Every structure is written in structure tokens, then in C-alpha cells.
Amino acid sequence: MSITEDEARKVAHLSRIAVDDAALPALARELNGILHFMEQLNEVDVEGVEPMTGVTPMRLKRREDVVTTGSMPDRILSNAPDAREGFFAVPKVME
């Protein structure tokens, strides 16, 4: 499969990325390189290989699920980038 400049323009538009017409050939080459790499990955025999979440087999640390009162607002709010009057302060999103 090969990506044309017109298809690269469409991908850029769908991705909401502004790309100058002069940069479209380079973008098309990059996309073609990505597709070529994906085709190579499809050729790898993975029969009998179990899926994994990381490259090293390890068990995640777990803690016991204990119900608490949660009465530590000062400790919780100490992690917030901005806290006011005992609450998380966030930017206003609506006028």
C-alpha cells in the first residue's frame, strides 16, 4: 500500500494538523515508512506467544483493598497543583 500526497493531505486534515503543500511529499514518505514497518510486523510469527503488558515478566504490586474514612483532605490536597479553601482549584471552562 502506498500513500499519495492527496491521501497525506486528507490524513493531516483528519488529524487537525496544518501541513504546507511543500511538506506533503515528506509526510507521504513518512506515512509510507510507517505502513511498511507495519507490514514487516505482520510477517512476524507470533503463534503460541502470550500477550503481555511489558517486556519483563513481573507481577504488579498489589495492596489490600481496605475501606477507610478518607479523612485526610490536607494530604490529598497537597498533591494538587492549585487548592483553595479545601477544594481542588481548576481553570474556569465556561463563561
Automatic annotation (TrEMBL):
Molecular functions per Gene Ontology: asparaginyl-tRNA synthase (glutamine-hydrolyzing) activity; ATP binding; glutaminyl-tRNA synthase (glutamine-hydrolyzing) activity; transferase activity
EC number(s) given by UniProt: 6.3.5.-
Pfam families hit by this protein: GatC
InterPro entries: Asp/Glu-ADT_sf_sub_c, GatC
Entry keyword set: ATP-binding, Ligase, Nucleotide-binding, Protein biosynthesis, Transferase
Gene3D superfamilies per record: Glu-tRNAGln amidotransferase C subunit, N-terminal domain (1.10.20.60)
EC category: ligase
BP term (GO), one: glutaminyl-tRNAGln biosynthesis via transamidation
Known catalytic reactions: L-glutamyl-tRNA(Gln) + L-glutamine + ATP + H2O = L-glutaminyl-tRNA(Gln) + L-glutamate + ADP + phosphate + H(+); L-aspartyl-tRNA(Asn) + L-glutamine + ATP + H2O = L-asparaginyl-tRNA(Asn) + L-glutamate + ADP + phosphate + 2 H(+)
Membrane-spanning intervals of the chain: none
UniProt keyword annotation of ATP-binding present: yes
Subunit structure, interactors included: Heterotrimer of A, B and C subunits.
Protein family (similarity comment): Belongs to the GatC family.
Protein task: Allows the formation of correctly charged Asn-tRNA(Asn) or Gln-tRNA(Gln) through the transamidation of misacylated Asp-tRNA(Asn) or Glu-tRNA(Gln) in organisms which lack either or both of asparaginyl-tRNA or glutaminyl-tRNA synthetases. The reaction takes place in the presence of glutamine and ATP through an activated phospho-Asp-tRNA(Asn) or phospho-Glu-tRNA(Gln).
Name assigned to this protein: Aspartyl/glutamyl-tRNA(Asn/Gln) amidotransferase subunit C
Organism: Paracoccus alcaliphilus
